[in-house]
Specification:
About 30% of the residues lie in helices and about 25% in strands. It is an alpha/beta fold. It has a single domain, classed as Maf protein (Alpha-Beta Complex). Strands 1, 2, 3, 4, 5, 6 and 7 form a seven-stranded mixed sheet that branches. A hairpin with a 3-residue loop joins strand 5 and strand 6. Helix 3 packs across helix 4. The longest helix has 15 residues. The protein is globular. It starts with 6 loop residues before the first strand and ends in a 14-residue tail after the last helix. The mean pLDDT is about 95.
Length: about 200
């Protein structure tokens, strides 16, 4: 039986960690620090793909998984808000309409590389200024792309999701599973051995 390499997650995101832990996958966390500013005129899909590939390349390990997630509305990339006022601006943009969540995901082995982009459409309910103020005051929007967390209090405002839910959280699990297969790995083999 082939040896299963150590899987390195090149991300400090607690959400990505929780998703992998939920699958029972064994992995080590090695976050990388990169400039995440979009390049001039860079399209949102190109942006998340480039960052995922750069993060995977910057981390050391035999098998490295990296991802980058952003929210897009009217062609504008909504990363993490700069401050609470920026979070309010983003939530006003999202209120009562549909937006896209894009995640670039990259998997690099010692001999091969693969990367793809996953897209999920999310529809927000209309939001009052009082609801926006309340949500921003919870602190949850501060470190989230698009200023909301679908797995947290932000779920109160989500009317519909079309596509991968886990993509909106930060890691498209079905696409990741297929990416592992493309490089010749069975993600199920990375699960921790159950205790007896």
């Amino acid at each position: 039986m082939a040896t299963i390499p150590d899987l390195i997650l090149a991300s400090g995101s607690p959400r990505r960690r929780e998703l992998l832990e939920g699958l029972g996958v064994r992995f080590k966390v090695r976050p990388v620090d990169l400039d995440e500013s979009p390049l001039p005129g860079e399209a949102p899909r190109d942006y998340v793909l480039r960052l995922a590939v750069e993060k995977a390349a910057a981390a050391s390990g035999e098998l490295v998984l990296a991802a980058d997630t952003t929210v897009v509305v009217d062609g504008e990339i909504l990363g993490k808000p700069r401050d609470d006022d920026d979070a309010r601006r983003m939530l006003r943009l999202l209120a009562g309409r549909e937006h896209a969540v894009l995640t670039g995901i990259a998997l690099h082995s010692s001999s091969e590389k693969a990367a793809e982009v996953d897209e999920t459409l999310v529809r927000f309910a209309p939001l009052s200024e009082a609801e926006i103020d309340w949500y921003v005051a919870t602190g949850e929007p501060r470190d989230k792309a698009g200023a909301y967390a679908i797995q947290g209090l932000g779920s109160l405002f989500v009317d519909a999701v079309e596509g991968s839910y886990s993509n909106v959280v930060g890691l498209p699990i079905p696409r990741m599973y297929r990416l592992f297969a493309r490089l010749g790995y069975d993600l199920k083999a990375f699960r921790s051995t159950p205790r007896t």
